[in-house]
């Protein structure tokens, strides 16, 4: 799509005694005024033709709020959108104002340009909430917004924003996907992937997701990037709400345990305002553009402009479907990042959404009218990156090559994987990876907090074993397990990209195991999480694999031992208590080792380790490691270790490492992927000779997956 040029038209409406005055002005068509009454906007919802003699559905000054609430709830039908759009056109464009429009249309057509309407509605908030995107030409019955014309809501503020477009790449987007527990689930991951796909292959742009999507994490991330690699776009993916009682728009972020935490648009604006590099906010949520009939600045989009947090906002005036939201992100950024105007990019997105509706047979849908553009700056360009000069003789230039500082690290991890010498360790905090998924298992800190609340723990919540020890006293261990079971044993929990990634690695490594030295044994992954998400994903991807789980509470013959299960084609075999007669593996199938145990029971009594007493017994058991299959022990002690989602603030986890490393440290290079380390954790990892990689877990797995795919493709070519 080529860059569009526009003839600018300012459309200003003011409220007078008993009527509205319209002023239409443009350099291409001059000035003109007209008036209309609210009754001229009446139309009968549900009819394909206009009926001026009907009282049903009429807009009056008395019932305007109720009518607006009806047309805001869902996108109207095509017939209603066209009927209302024609009513709106007929009310605005009369004699003198029509003359201005006609002149602009003629000049635009002659010069191969489009029209851009700047709506000045600050003085008439009761009209600002109308769906102006359905403005429809009479008598042609064509929508301006679907004819490459642009409709922008301009908020007049005392401090206009005159910042020039960004000229130095890259454009940095902070994406905030939020689907908290308790809200209607959204495919925020799908939209985020669509956003990432949209920029894939386009130079000079970076997307940085925020996990977890909490207020604390948002403020921290903005502070970290304030002076280094600042963000230019705030892109929210999730739910918005309008608080009718307080007359303010809100976004639904998450609290520390994944539940709903509403942040008002004013509060969000105060946070974003501290990050002065922001040029645009995209609020991909329902009701993000809603306002009140008395305050033109009450909605999320309007408040962000008023607070001077950003000069431009794209928001939604209706509930938008996942498919349309994904398409919007892809089309919009694809156009925007090639230097198009903001409204040109939105126009392209409208066209793509409309085309998809037609192809799917949804001819009555007008979801293309959902996006709304707000600006307090009349330069709608976001970036103005210099175009790359054409080079005839490529050998005559030498371009600098940018290297990721973690290139060497990824190469080392992939080499260890290729050599079957890498054992990943998953901690409870891998559940931070799925913060955007609801529901999900708790992280380490969330589990401690929940147990502390359930047991009315009298002190500040400490480590998990200590809180659990208190929670099960006196003689309440069975009750404790009953309380813990729903935290991890919920069929609604879904495996994440992290589980999918390791299942893929396990399958690939098993297929090529014959090329690896036998001493390195099968693929092994260790987890200290109690849920069964890893087993479920392996069942879907891996034909055969083993699971070994520690038994912390059972009969005297069972306690302190492991039980094993063999899975074949997604079906688990009968559990077997591991002893010297059956502990040796006779195959090279992948192994999942669950050190503290699992919520899945061997029998009605067998449980996992969580209290102090249970961890003391686990760590002091002299036979603890010797009762595991020899292949598993060999693998553990002859491999690099990759720690994901581990926290060393808990002595029990440090004790597990102590037993695994035989009172020393790993013999092979090992790494921990972690952010926000405490000074203690940093010193401990360094003392253990484990390299610290401070990178967001979701970003890390995504990058590792991309690097590994590239390595696999290169290996196939070489072979």
Q: How many domains make up the coordinates?
A: 3
3D shape: elongated
Number of contiguous helices: 21
Mean pLDDT: 80
The level of helicity is 25-40%
The stretches of 5 or more residues where confidence is low (pLDDT under 50) are: 47-70, 388-403, 713-719
- The count of strands amounts to 26
Major sheet strand order: 3-2-1-4-7-16-15-14-10-8-9
Q: Which strand-content bin applies to the residues?
A: 15-25%
Radius of gyration: 30 Å
What layout of secondary structure does this protein have?
Elements: E1 6-16, E2 19-26, E3 30-36, H1 64-73, H2 78-92, H3 95-110, E4 114-120, H4 125-128, E5 136-137, E6 142-143, E7 150-154, E8 171-177, H5 188-199, E9 205-209, H6 215-224, E10 233-237, E11 240-243, E12 248-254, E13 260-264, H7 265-273, E14 280-284, H8 300-306, E15 312-316, H9 322-336, H10 342-359, E16 371-375, H11 407-418, E17 422-426, H12 444-455, H13 464-471, H14 477-488, H15 497-511, E18 524-527, H16 533-541, E19 544-550, E20 562-568, E21 571-572, E22 576-577, E23 591-594, H17 612-620, H18 630-637, E24 640-644, H19 651-660, E25 670-673, H20 679-687, E26 690-693, H21 697-718
Parallel strand pairs: 1-4, 4-7, 7-16, 8-9, 8-10, 10-14, 14-15, 17-18, 17-24, 18-23, 19-23, 24-25, 25-26
Antiparallel strand pairs: 1-2, 2-3, 5-6, 11-12, 12-13, 15-16, 19-20, 20-21, 20-22
Helix pairs in contact: 5-9, 7-8, 9-10, 12-13, 13-17, 15-16, 17-19
């Amino acid at each position: 799509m080529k860059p569009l040029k526009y003839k600018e038209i300012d459309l200003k409406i003011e409220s007078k005694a008993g009527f509205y005055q319209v002023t239409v002005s443009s350099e291409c068509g001059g000035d003109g005024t007209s008036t209309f009454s609210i009754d001229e906007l009446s139309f009968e919802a549900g009819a394909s033709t206009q009926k001026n003699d009907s009282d049903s559905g009429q807009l009056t000054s008395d019932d305007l709020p109720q009518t607006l609430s009806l047309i805001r709830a869902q996108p109207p039908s095509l017939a209603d959108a066209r009927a209302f759009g024609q009513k709106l056109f007929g009310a605005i464009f009369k004699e003198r104002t029509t003359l201005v429009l006609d002149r602009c249309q003629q000049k635009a057509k002659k010069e191969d340009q489009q029209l851009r309407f700047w709506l000045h509605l600050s003085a008439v908030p009761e009209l600002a909430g109308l769906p102006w995107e359905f403005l429809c030409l009479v008598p042609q019955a064509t929508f301006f917004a679907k004819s490459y014309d642009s409709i922008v809501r301009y908020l007049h503020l005392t401090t206009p924003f005159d910042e020039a477009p960004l000229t130095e790449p890259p454009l940095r987007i902070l994406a905030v996907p939020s689907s908290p527990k308790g809200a209607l689930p959204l495919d925020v991951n799908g939209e985020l992937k669509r956003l990432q796909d949209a920029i894939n292959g386009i130079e000079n742009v970076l997307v940085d997701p925020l996990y977890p999507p909490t207020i604390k994490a948002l403020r921290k991330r903005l502070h970290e990037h304030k002076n280094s690699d600042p963000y230019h776009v705030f892109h929210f993916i999730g739910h918005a709400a309008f608080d009718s009682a307080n007359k303010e728009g809100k976004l639904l972020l998450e609290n520390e345990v994944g539940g709903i935490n509403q942040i008002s648009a004013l509060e969000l604006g105060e946070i974003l305002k501290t990050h002065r590099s922001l040029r645009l906010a995209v609020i991909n949520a329902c009701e993000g553009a809603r306002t009140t009939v008395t305050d033109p600045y009450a909605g999320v989009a309007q408040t962000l402009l008023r607070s001077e947090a950003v000069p431009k906002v794209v928001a939604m005036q209706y509930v938008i479907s996942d498919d349309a939201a994904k398409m919007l992100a892809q089309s919009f950024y694809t156009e925007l990042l090639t230097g198009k105007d903001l409204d040109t990019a939105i126009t392209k997105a409208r066209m793509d959404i409309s085309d998809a509706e037609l192809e799917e047979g949804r001819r009555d849908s007008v979801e293309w009218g959902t996006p709304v553009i707000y600006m307090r700056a009349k330069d709608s360009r976001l970036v103005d990156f210099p175009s790359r000069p054409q080079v005839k003789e490529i050998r005559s230039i030498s371009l600098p090559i940018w290297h990721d500082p973690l290139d060497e690290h990824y190469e080392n991890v992939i080499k260890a994987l290729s050599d079957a010498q890498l054992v990943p360790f998953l901690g409870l905090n891998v559940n931070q990876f799925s913060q955007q998924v609801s529901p999900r298992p708790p992280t380490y800190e969330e589990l401690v907090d929940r147990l502390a609340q359930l047991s009315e723990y009298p002190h500040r919540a400490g480590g998990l074993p200590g809180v659990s020890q208190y929670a099960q006293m006196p003689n309440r261990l069975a009750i404790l397990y009953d309380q813990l079971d729903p935290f991890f044993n919920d069929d609604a929990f879904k495996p994440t990209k992290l589980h999918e990634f390791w299942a893929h690695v396990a399958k690939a490594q098993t297929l090529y195991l014959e090329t690896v030295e036998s001493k390195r044994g099968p693929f092994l992954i260790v987890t200290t999480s109690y849920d069964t998400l890893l087993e479920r994903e392996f069942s879907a991807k891996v034909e055969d694999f083993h699971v070994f789980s520690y038994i912390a509470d059972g009969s005297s013959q069972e306690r302190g031992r492991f039980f094993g299960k063999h899975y074949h084609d997604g079906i688990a075999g009968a559990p077997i208590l591991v002893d010297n007669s059956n502990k040796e593996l006779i195959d090279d199938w992948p192994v999942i080792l669950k050190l503290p145990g699992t919520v899945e029971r061997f029998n009605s009594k067998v449980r996992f380790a969580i209290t102090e007493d249970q961890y003391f017994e686990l760590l002091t058991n002299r036979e603890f490691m010797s009762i595991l299959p020899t292949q598993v022990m060999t693998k553990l002690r002859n491999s690099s270790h990759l720690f994901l989602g581990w926290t060393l603030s808990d002595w029990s986890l440090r004790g597990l490492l102590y037993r695994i490393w035989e009172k020393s440290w790993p013999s092979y290079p090992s790494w921990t992927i972690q952010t926000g380390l405490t000074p203690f954790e940093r010193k401990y990892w360094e003392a253990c000779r484990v390299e610290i990689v401070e990178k967001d877990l979701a970003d890390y797995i995504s990058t590792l997956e991309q690097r590994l795919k590239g390595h696999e493709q290169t290996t196939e070519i070489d072979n």
